[in-house]
Amino acid sequence: MRDIFLRACKGEKTTPVPVWFMRQAGRYLPQYQKIRGKADFLTMCKTPELAAEVTLQPVDILGVDAAILFSDILIPLEAMGAGLSFVEGKGPVINPPLRSLADLKGLRPIEPEEDVPFVLKTIKILRRELSGRVPLIGFAGAPFTMATYLIEGGTTKSFVNVKRMLFSSPSLFRSVLDIITKVTISYLSAQIKAGVQAVQLFDTWAGVLTRHDFRDAALIYSKRIFDALKKMGVPMIYFVYDGGHLLDLIRLSGADVIGLDWRTDILAALKSLGNDVVVQGNLDPCLMFLEDERLRERIARIIEQGLSAKAHIFNLGHGVLPEVPPERVRLAIDMVHELSS
Ligand code: 1CP
Questions:
Q1: Can you give the residue range of the structural domain that contains 147?
Q2: Which of 16, 222, 314, 317 would be a feasible disulfide site paired with 261, CB 3.0-4.6 Å?
Q3: CB atoms < 10 A from the CB of 70, how many?
Q4: Of 27, 127, 263, 301, which is the active-site residue?
Q5: Would you say the CB of residue 140 lies under 6 angstroms from ligand 1?
Q6: CATH no. for residue 178?
Q7: What is the dihedral angle through the alpha carbons of 321, 72, 201, 256, rounded to the nearest 10 degrees?
Q8: In terms of pTM, does the model score above 0.90?
Q9: How many CB atoms lie within 10 A of CB 210?
Q10: Which atom number of ligand 1 is nearest to the Cα of residue 145?
Q11: pLDDT one-digit tens code per residue, 143-174
């Protein structure tokens, strides 16, 4: 197997540097669009053959060094009893949103084998199909980010409902985080038992918190998840989007790898993290539109900075944009390999 991704996760400086991209499966790929044209997004997630097929597309087409399970962070919320849908042009919707103790009582813990068997089946298909190629990454949303979707009922710009609950009903909010944390531990354990070789916890919205609130409402729950999974022995990645002001706290999470968005240079991030850490990132997804030579310079700069960390996994600072031509993505991956060899 091409194992540079797993070796880098464990702290080895590899040649070349491994690369994979968040949202590497998705709308920018015509091969994805073709399948998506026949099935809606939730059906794709729940049909193991389709989910496995789109997971493999970037491995086959782009030459990435890791596959990431095709699913969504919100899938376990549905299994917990929340009403989940993906509305065309609008994104995820949770209806009704969680606003009271009575709403919380409607949520239950999950038994992954019974409640999300399709995820585990997808993983088993993928391990078979990937054998001898690249490792498979599993994932989940971190508790604060999951709570945001539950309480806001979907995407938000103001975070007014989730923050209002955090500040005005702290004990209710803690109960929401507790149940999500419990579910996430059993969900990720099941993914690992089914065969994923690394896990990433996505904390997409925790960056809206002050340091004080991040510690109380995000970090301790994410840390609980990492502490519980540590004994399973697979590398764990923590990605907090827009978390530049939180890096020294993120370092305390217990994750093996820290994901960085593009706002903080790797060298600046290492001042807060210390150099004895594995980092993942952090090309601005919009730089993929640059002409070749400028793109090469930007990639070279990130690889150079990554050398100051214990080890480096190349990635974008957030997901691949739907507007990016697949040839650009392929070119960027080739450049990472070439420039770090
Ligand atoms: O075809 C479509 O219309 C669906 C678009 C889509 C896709 C391709 C959604 C809806 N989710 C996904 C896949 C997905 N989501 C993956 C697959 C693996 C890969 O990376 O290739 C992963 C890891 C996610 C994780 C995810 N979902 C996150 C965390 C990462 C991030 O982007 O910050 C979040 C916040 C979500 C929620 C979600 N699901 C879908 C969308 C469009 C969103 C974001 C909505 C928002 O901005 O609030």
A1: 40-277
A2: 317
A3: 25
A4: 27
A5: no
A6: 3.20.20.210
A7: -80
A8: yes
A9: 11
A10: 35
A11: 999 999 999 999 999 999 999 999 999 999 99
